[in-house]
Design brief:
Rossmann fold; about 750 residues; six-stranded antiparallel sheet; about 45% helix; Beta-Lactamase; single chain
Length: about 750
């Protein structure tokens, strides 16, 4: 310890120094003979006690005491003087002197040393106590700050570093800082300290903390252990632990607040019903959706039973499910039927036992999610699966469409719906089937063509679409239509299913999804019937070809055999006799063979319809055919008219009719060709055909025995079929045969 002795008597000062060094060997003795020298030593040395004479040249000891008290507070000050009196002693005590001794014999130095030791010890104890109180006060203050914080962590931590310097030995030169990860909080007028003390910690959330105190100047008094007291080090550690605990608490509170916020969001905004009931079935809690759905406040519902809210049957079913949970202690998932505003709704309820802190069941907690629409979709899917067999049993596209609109109405609840099938020949979507609701809404459905409707656009795109407001769509077909929203469901290359409503936004993605399932079935069925139809047509074509082949074979085997036999027999006789009369018979037989081959070739060739039809002059073709046959002395009469057809086929038709007329009517027969309103006629002046034979004259092989092949009129019938003409056989005005050909596909009269 450092002791300052002040006395103007140098000899006495030396004597005092000698004795004190002997009595206080661990002390450092500083001396001064004048007050100003003593003050200089007080500023530069760590003096812990002042021993001063009363009489000093520049001021007395009590005046010096006043100076020490002003600059160094309660620093121990012992007045050691040779001038003793009650008055001085009283004045010294009043001035706050630590002790008072008179200069006497050597025994006084023992007392002086003891008084110095006692004064220094007592002062140090008081100082330590004050520092400790100051530190504890700082700890308490900071603890209160952290405890009373309103959650604004930044402001609270800033107050901590503002308070902390006041707890140090030399607060006027002290600063403090706190780093939380990359964020730093500092005390007011912070400067980087010259002397510093830092402690570190980590929060449970992983935040790294560094708390630092320090002094910004070297002029602070340093103890043997440095600029900071051990108590200050302990206090700093304690304060950092408080800060760590505070941040941990804030983190926990933040997590709790976030969890509470999320729970509130769930409870307030979920569309599921949430509720808690006690073991007797009384409601303890319901969420906002429950309140909204049943129009009841939680306060009004708490303490009530399901029977107070739901119909008896539903309430008993719900209560039975609750009892299962209470009795088994196990969660269940069950469908429950509840009536809401007169509508029966289906809910999927998850019910679990609610446990108290002891683990005992104290009630039932439930979450019920409405699945009414889901169950409806399930029923629709089941119905659609049953519908596929009926669709696949249809035999025509029209029949598929009829089944389709019924399924859309009854299964999908698309009351106003129609199916338009694509007509490739006319390049249009034609209405094939539709419900009565369509007719009531818009009348007869229109036919759609390229670029003039939403339906055509969706048909081309091939993407199912729900239109919220058709009036806002540029491709609307009829802007005056009462329909506001539409559902368009493409049927692949076959057409489209449409549904309409006078209400905007009546169809949603669920309607699109379930509708696509129906259209998948419809497309499959349409593919089946069109494939089967094509197969049937192909089979009919093959049957027709086979029939012609059989006809050809039978004619070859029968009709050609006779003229061939005649030719062969006469050839043999000619070789035997050389009589040329046999050559004439051979020539006749060969001519007949040639005619049969011509007829058979025409029958085979005209069995398949031609596509390259054009406007043809009937008289011109008829006269050309007349020149191709042996008409003998028969006469042809024609009147102007035109038809649409294939000229070469018409030529073959007239050849066979003319050959038939000449063969039956004789060499002088007259044949007339003239127009009808939608066709033409060919008649002769022969004997005609009896009425009972008119149904069979076009059959293959029919002949009246004039020498014909029996296929001529069959050829005529096939050519007429290829042109979509009807044939009527009746009597001419002269009693002969009259063949009338009428174009069934034309509404325009023949020119």
């Amino acid at each position: 310890m450092h002791i300052l002795c002040v006395d103007d008597d140098t000899d006495f000062l030396d004597l005092t120094t000698t004795f004190l060094r002997r009595k206080l060997p661990d002390a450092t003795i500083h001396t001064a003979t004048r007050v100003r020298d003593a003050q200089a030593l007080l500023e530069t040395e760590p003096i812990v006690c002042v021993v001063s004479d009363y009489e000093i040249p520049d001021r007395n000891g009590l005046e010096f005491l006043h100076t020490v008290r002003e600059s160094h507070g309660e620093l121990p000050f012992i007045l050691f003087t040779g001038k003793g009196s009650e008055e001085i002693a009283s004045e010294a005590i009043s001035a706050g002197v630590t002790d008072y001794l008179q200069k006497r014999g050597p025994e006084q130095y023992d007392r002086l040393a003891a008084r110095i030791r006692h004064a220094v010890t007592e002062h140090q104890t008081e100082r330590d106590l004050r520092e400790r109180v100051k530190e504890l006060t700082a700890i308490q203050t900071i603890s209160n700050l952290l405890t009373d914080s309103d959650g604004r962590s930044a402001e609270t931590l800033r107050q901590v570093v503002t308070t902390l310097p006041q707890s140090l030995q030399f607060p006027e030169d002290a600063v403090a800082s706190l780093s939380v990860d990359d964020t730093e909080f500092t005390s007011p007028e912070y400067e980087p300290p010259v002397h510093r003390l830092a402690v570190q910690d980590v929060t449970t959330a992983g935040n790294e903390l560094v708390l630092t105190i320090g002094y910004t100047t070297d002029s602070v008094t340093e103890t043997d252990s440095g600029a900071f007291l051990p108590e200050e080090q302990e206090s700093l550690t304690t304060i950092l632990q408080l800060v760590t605990a505070y941040l941990d608490r804030q983190h926990v509170l933040s997590d709790l607040r976030e969890a509470d916020r999320r729970l509130s969001l769930i409870l307030e905004n979920t569309t599921a019903l949430m509720y808690l009931k006690d073991t007797t079935g009384r409601y303890v809690f319901v969420n906002a959706e429950y309140e909204r759905l049943f129009d009841v406040d939680t306060e009004d519902l708490v303490g009530r039973y399901d029977a107070d809210i739901h119909p008896p049957e539903a309430a008993e079913a719900v209560r039975a499910n609750d009892r299962r949970v209470l009795e088994t202690g196990e969660p269940i998932e069950v469908e429950e039927q509840i009536r809401v505003n007169g509508d029966d709704r289906t809910y999927l309820s998850l019910k679990v036992p609610a446990l108290d802190t002891a683990g005992d069941v104290e009630g039932v907690f439930g979450v019920s999610t409405e699945i009414t629409e889901h169950k409806k979709r399930e029923r629709q899917l089941e119905a659609l699966n049953r519908e596929i067999s009926r669709l696949l049993s249809a035999e025509t596209p029209e029949e598929v469409a009829e089944h389709g609109v019924v399924a859309a109405r009854e299964i999908l609840d698309l009351q106003a719906n129609a199916i338009h099938l694509y007509d490739a020949e006319n390049e249009e979507l034609a209405p094939v089937a539709y419900t009565d609701a369509v007719r009531e809404l818009i009348g007869e459905p229109p036919t759609f063509r390229d670029g003039e409707s939403i339906a055509w656009r969706v048909f081309e795109d091939g993407v199912a679409t729900a239109i919220d407001d058709v009036r806002a769509d540029a491709d609307i077909y009829n802007p005056e239509s009462p329909i506001r929203s539409e559902l368009h469901l493409p049927l692949g290359a076959y057409g489209i299913l449409m549904a309409g409503s006078s209400t905007p936004s009546n169809f949603d993605t669920q309607d699109v999804t379930i509708g696509e399932l129906l259209t998948t079935h419809l497309t499959t069925a349409l593919s089946k019937v069109t494939t089967e139809q094509a197969l049937r047509e192909r089979e009919a074509e093959l049957e027709d070809k086979n029939e012609r082949l059989e006809q050809f074979a039978s004619t070859v085997s029968h009709d050609l055999r006779n003229p061939l036999a005649i030719a062969a027999g006469n050839l043999e006789r000619y070789r035997e006799t050389g009589d040329e009369v046999h050559l004439g018979k051979i020539d006749t037989a060969l001519t007949r063979i040639q005619e049969l081959i011509t007829d058979l070739t025409a029958l085979a060739r005209h069995g398949i319809p031609e596509e390259n039809h054009e406007t043809v002059s009937v008289p011109e073709v008829a006269r050309g055919a007349w020149e191709l046959i042996d008409t003998r002395s028969a006469t042809l009469s024609t009147e102007p008219c035109t038809v649409t057809g294939e000229a070469s086929q018409l030529t073959a038709l007239f050849e066979n009719l003319f050959r038939n007329a000449v063969g039956h009517g004789g060499p002088d027969v007259t044949v007339r060709v003239g127009p009808l309103e939608h066709g033409f006629y060919v008649e002769d002046t022969g004997d005609g055909v009896p009425p009972d034979e008119r149904e069979t004259v076009f059959d293959h092989g029919y002949t009246t025995g004039y020498g014909g092949s029996g296929v001529g009129l069959t050829i005529v019938s096939r050519i007429a079929q290829a042109h979509d003409w009807d044939i009527t056989l009746t009597d001419s005005i002269d009693g002969g045969a009259r063949f009338e050909f009428t174009d069934t596909s034309s509404s325009e009269p023949v020119v």
